[in-house]
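Obj: model holo form, ligand = nickel (II) ion.
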Amino acid sequence: MPVQPVIKMGNPLLYQVAKSVTEFNTPELIQLIEDLFNTMRATGGVGIAAPQIGVSYQVTVFGFEKSLRYPHAESVPQTVLINPTVEFLTSQMEDDWEGCLSTPGLRGFVPRYTHIRYSGYDQFGEFFQREVQGFHARLVQHEYDHLQGKLYPMRLKELHHFGFEEEISELMKKHAPHPSE
Ligand code: NI
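Output (holo structure tokens):
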């Protein structure tokens, strides 16, 4: 199915709390998930949330083997996550550079919890939970935020650690990932 247009920061749909899914394994839901995966792959993303293609439901897909956008990130299994909950298993956060398909060309230095447990449902209504760390934990927090109407620039500690990719290579070298104070 066609790749969908990705809406960008500023669009009011990105600031709404998305609705819960109540019916699983429907043709509409299966189609939505296919569209999300196709759009994510076509844009080189590692994750995408339904509100980003204009569908305000608690649905996100993510996962990759190797990412050009995040060359140092360890792989994350291909996942469909619906109606998620996230529990933080540590108070420790780490700052790292993050981007978003809704802020093309931009990166920001964002604190995220390093160790979480998340749970939710797949497209068939099957419940699952996982305990994860590192980039996987960061990715889930980013996608979960989308479903709560939050974008990563709202998580920045310092606005000057935010900018266009081609302008911030020096900044990115200076601020490698590190534990957040
Ligand atoms: Ni995003």
